[in-house]
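**Protein fold record**
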Amino acid sequence: QVQLVESGGGLVQPGGSLRLSCTTSGNIFSWVVMGWYRQAPGKQRELVATLNNGPVTSYADSVKGRSTISRDIAKNTLYLQMNSLKPEDTAVYYCNVKLLSGRGLLDYWGQGTQVTVSS
């Protein structure tokens, strides 16, 4: 069974930095894309950054130049480094992994970690 556990969220002042972690367990050998999404109160969940097995990264315009997605294979961990944080970055951040199966793509999600940017 695939499980994703996020950590690293918290309260940070505007202009500060955070590194989110997503530790994976289970068989993710067939992964196609890993990514981070976020959901602010009253808003839909939105894509923040993705990493495919190229590896190629992509970022939402709102975080481009301020965030870096990376993966440590040995630690089975996906990271999201966020710098120059803004109040509008406040949201619950979710880790996502898409696996290729005979039934198509399977989505797995973590439980989320809260990021609050406030002075």
